[in-house]
Every structure is written in structure tokens, then in C-alpha cells.
């Protein structure tokens, strides 16, 4: 998270159980060479995840650096180029040239991009550092709106708020905190309004150990946000393991506990002292074991590119050679195969009688799957909304496994088959992406993808997507006759 080589200050580290994650009975069985993917991104994609890296625009002219980055990874985070000091160096004067350089480099290679970061106590431009109170609150809102407008619809996710907690789980006393305890909520609500299409994440370090105070503080905030409908889609665990802070034995518990709140989790800034093979394999396997752990990002390409370069913490050495830790990660990703480890199989059940109109009601939210504004435009993404029984909430399950609306003129349609694919309406065409299994565990899964209808939250306007079936409440729906 630090500006590369800008200072020598180290992050606080947490003394944890030094033992690496124990995976009882989890012997890795690696597919044959004919089946195994040969790059990190391709291997992660087999289970619907990503494996990414942080990119510094000033290094893209280094051919070794750019070749590795373009070959190995399928998600890119700008190391510094999308932070507040880079994007709004003078108040109300935005500069996206550095961020766009990285975005264009990535997307030209078919790579997705995470936005990092919108609101943070560090790396603020000098004009923002001098502000406080209502003026700073307004400046934060304006910054979020300005940056997200520029990248609207382009990014996979945004780290909306970064590092807002102390080690004991209390709020960090930053100038942003000084604007009022609701500043994080305001940032997320502003971000959702600015770009409803991107996932909104909270990102922090030292939240890997489930029993640690900081972890619990962040957990309580997410729990509160979800209970009140504050828009938040994911939690980023930076996963900087340095010195006394190593992979905790309860790391998977942390990931699954956050995920159980109805958010995705991601490892966003991974680096490990001396690139411990055991720790890299362990953190990778923990992510693979949690269905809503959507991806891993290492914070740099080669050891020489790291903000901790003297600790050799990455998967490639300074010469661009793969290290033992690289092989351990690749093997773990390949062993996972299609679908996250431990994902329950959705079992089709006897469908409801065809011909009758039904509401599709979320078990967690009590809200209905709804076509916004009664639109009949192809590609309109469906959402959760209070049930009212009007025609944009009346669905018929047909003998050919379609879910039709508006008397059969439009079908529920998956715009893709991967995790996060949008669920929308489209003219009925009989394709497999418009066929659905209504399953005995309450899930509705796509015939083409095998993935389930999934929502990120419970409030009005929460969009419906495809996600690996795990049977939790946010994937359970019931068809109720109108």
C-alpha cells in the first residue's frame, strides 16, 4: 500500500500463531501436465477466480516486467496511480493520465482492473491534508464522484475506503474520521450512486487473524453495514506477512466469517517475507476453500519491484525467474480445478407447475427479483426490490426451464457464465444461458454455467449475478404464486 520506496516506515505487525495453516487431509493432487494451466491467472480462472498483481506505470517500459505481468496475471491494480494525490493533485482539477496508462495497458491485453483507492488517510494531496470538518467531507464526496465518473462501468471493483482502523479495532483518528463517525458509510453510499456496476470494497492490513482486535473491529463494521443496507460488496485483506506476522492458523476462519456476512473476500496486496513456500501455498489454499474468496493479488511483480524488496517477498526474483513459492501457488490453483473447493452441488428438484405467474422471493431479503422501472429493454439487469406483484415481478417457469416475464416476451438471461456475470432480461431464444434449474436446496442455477443466482446484499436495488453455488441464504429463493 505504500508508495514504492517513499519511506522506510514498516506496518505494524501482529504476533500470531507461527504455524502455517493446517489443511487436514488436504493432499494436493495436481492435474496432468496436459490439463494444468501454466500461468497463475489461467490457473485461478479455472475455479472462477483471478490472480492479479500491482503495476507501477513507470516500470511498464521494462520488458521483463511487462512480459511477466501480461503473461501471468488476469487482474491488475494500479500501485499508486489511482490514489487521491495522483488523481486530484489540485482541488477540483482531476488528472487521470497515470491511471489511464495502466488501465489501457491492462485492458488492451484482456486483463481486468481493480480501482485503488478512493478515501484514505495517507497519500492525500497537500490541499486535502490541510482540510477538516465539513469542507473535507464535501471534498471527499466530490473526489469519489469525480474519479468514479471517469472510470464508470470500466473497473471490476474499487477499494472505496482503505485502512480506517487501529490495531485494537477502534477507528483511526485521521482527518477523515474527524469529519464524523459516519464518513465510511457516506463514502460507500456515494460510491454506489456514482457507479452501481462496480463492486465496492473495504481494504485493510492486519485483519487476517480472526482473534485479533482489528479484525473484529472491521467485522463489526461490515456486519452493521449489511444489517442496515449500506452498500458494500467485498472486504480486501491485504495479507502482508512480514517479520512476526505470518499466516495465522485461523486465516480460513477469517475469510469464511466475513463471507458469511454476504460479502466477497479477496487477498489484495499479498507479499510474504522470503516468499515462504508454505505460507504462499497456505494462503492460496485458504482462499480456494472459501467459495466467496474471489481472487488473490500480489503486491508487485518481482522482488526488485516490491516496497519490501530487501525481504524478497514475491513470486519472481529480481531477474524475473519463478521462485519455489510460484510453483506452490500454481500447483494449488491447478489442484482446485473447476469450481471452488467444497462448493456444494445444486440438485435439481421437481419444478413448480408451468403456466402460472410467480414471484421469486429472496429468502435472506424477503424482496423480489424485479425488472427495474418495468423496462422491457434487452440487457436490463434484474435486481431485488420490495414485492408488489406487478408485471415486472411476475415470472413463469416453463417446461423448457425458462423463467419468463411480461407474459413470455422476455426471459431471465445470464450475460456470461463466470462468477459475477450479470443476470438480465432478454428476448427468449431457447439458449442454455436462459435455462434454469430450481433446486432442492432453494437455489436457482443456470443450466449453462452451473452457477447460482446470487445477491450482494438485501436492500432495494441490489443487483443479481451468477456465483458459484454455496447454498447460503443470499442464494436461496422461493417461487411464490401471485
UniProtKB/TrEMBL annotation:
This protein's record includes keyword Hydrolase: yes
Catalytic function, reaction form: Endohydrolysis of (1->4)-beta-D-xylosidic linkages in xylans
Any one biological process term the GO annotation gives: xylan catabolic process
Pfam families hit by this protein: Glyco_hydro_10, Ricin_B_lectin
Sequence segments annotated as region (Disordered): 336-355
The keyword Hydrolase appears for this protein: yes
UniProt keywords, alphabetically: Carbohydrate metabolism, Glycosidase, Hydrolase, Polysaccharide degradation, Signal, Xylan degradation
Highest taxon, organism lineage: Bacteria
UniProt EC number: 3.2.1.8
Residues annotated as domain GH10: 34-332
GO molecular function: endo-1,4-beta-xylanase activity
Signal peptide limits: 1-36
InterPro entries associated with the record: GH, GH10, GH10_dom, Ricin_B-like_lectins, Ricin_B_lectin, TAT_signal
Biased composition annotated in UniProt, kind: Low complexity: 336-348
Entry similarity comment: Belongs to the glycosyl hydrolase 10 (cellulase F) family.
Protein name: Beta-xylanase
Amino acid at each position: 500500500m505504500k508508495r514504492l520506496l517513499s519511506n522506510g516506515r514498516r506496518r505494524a505487525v501482529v504476533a500470531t500463531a507461527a504455524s502455517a495453516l493446517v489443511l487436514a487431509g488436504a493432499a494436493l493432487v495436481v492435474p496432468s501436465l496436459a490439463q494444468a494451466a501454466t500461468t497463475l491467472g489461467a490457473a485461478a480462472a479455472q475455479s472462477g477466480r483471478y490472480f492479479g498483481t500491482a503495476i507501477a506505470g513507470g516500470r511498464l517500459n521494462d520488458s521483463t516486467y511487462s512480459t511477466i505481468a501480461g503473461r501471468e496475471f488476469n487482474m491488475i491494480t494500479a500501485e499508486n496511480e489511482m490514489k487521491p494525490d495522483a488523481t486530484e493533485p489540485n482541488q477540483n482539477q482531476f488528472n487521470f493520465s497515470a491511471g489511464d496508462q495502466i488501465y489501457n495497458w491492462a485492458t488492451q491485453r484482456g486483463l481486468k482492473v481493480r480501482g485503488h483507492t478512493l478515501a484514505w488517510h495517507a497519500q492525500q494531496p497537500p490541499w486535502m491534508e490541510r482540510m477538516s470538518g465539513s469542507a473535507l467531507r464535501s471534498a471527499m464526496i466530490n473526489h469519489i464522484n469525480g474519479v468514479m465518473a471517469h472510470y464508470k462501468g470500466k473497473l471490476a471493483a474499487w477499494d472505496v475506503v482503505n485502512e480506517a482502523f487501529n490495531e485494537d479495532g477502534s477507528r483511526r483518528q485521521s482527518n477523515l474520521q474527524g469529519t464524523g463517525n459516519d464518513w465510511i458509510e457516506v463514502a460507500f453510499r456515494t460510491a454506489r450512486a456514482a457507479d452501481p456496476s462496480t463492486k465496492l470494497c473495504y481494504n485493510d492490513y492486519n485483519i487476517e487473524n480472526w482473534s485479533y482486535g482489528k479484525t473484529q473491529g472491521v467485522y463489526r463494521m461490515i456486519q452493521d453495514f449489511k444489517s442496515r443496507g449500506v452498500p458494500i460488496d467485498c472486504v480486501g485483506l491485504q495479507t502482508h506477512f512480514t517479520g512476526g506476522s505470518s499466516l495465522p492458523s485461523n486465516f480460513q476462519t477469517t475469510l469464511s466469517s466475513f463471507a458469511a456476512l454476504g460479502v466477497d473476500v479477496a487477498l489484495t496486496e499479498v507479499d510474504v517475507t522470503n516468499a515462504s513456500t508454505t505460507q504462499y501455498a497456505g494462503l492460496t489454499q485458504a482462499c480456494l476453500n472459501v467459495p466467496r474468496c474471489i481472487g488473490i493479488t500480489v503486491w508487485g511483480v518481482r522482488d526488485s519491484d516490491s516496497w519490501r524488496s530487501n525481504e524478497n517477498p514475491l513470486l519472481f526474483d529480481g531477474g524475473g525467474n519463478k521462485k519455489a513459492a510460484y510453483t506452490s501457488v500454481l500447483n494449488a490453483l491447478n489442484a482446485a480445478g473447476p469450481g471452488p473447493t467444497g462448493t456444494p452441488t445444486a440438485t435439481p428438484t421437481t419444478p413448480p407447475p408451468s403456466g402460472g405467474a410467480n414471484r421469486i422471493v429472496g429468502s435472506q431479503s424477503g424482496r423480489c427479483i424485479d425488472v427495474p422501472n418495468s423496462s422491457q429493454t434487452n440487457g436490463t439487469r434484474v435486481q431485488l426490490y420490495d414485492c408488489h406483484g406487478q408485471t415486472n415481478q411476475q415470472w413463469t417457469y416453463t417446461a423448457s426451464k425458462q423463467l419468463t416475464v411480461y407474459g413470455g416476451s422476455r426471459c431471465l438471461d445470464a450475460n456470461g457464465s463466470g462468477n459475477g456475470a450479470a443476470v438480465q432480461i432478454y428476448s427468449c431464444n431457447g439458449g442454455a444461458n436462459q435455462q434454469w434449474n430450481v433446486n432442492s436446496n432453494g437455489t436457482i442455477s443456470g443450466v449453462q454455467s452451473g452457477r447460482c443466482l446470487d445477491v450482494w446484499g438485501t436492500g432495494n436495488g441490489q443487483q443479481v449475478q451468477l456465483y458459484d453455488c454455496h447454498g447460503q441464504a443470499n442464494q436461496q429463493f422461493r417461487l411464490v404464486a401471485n
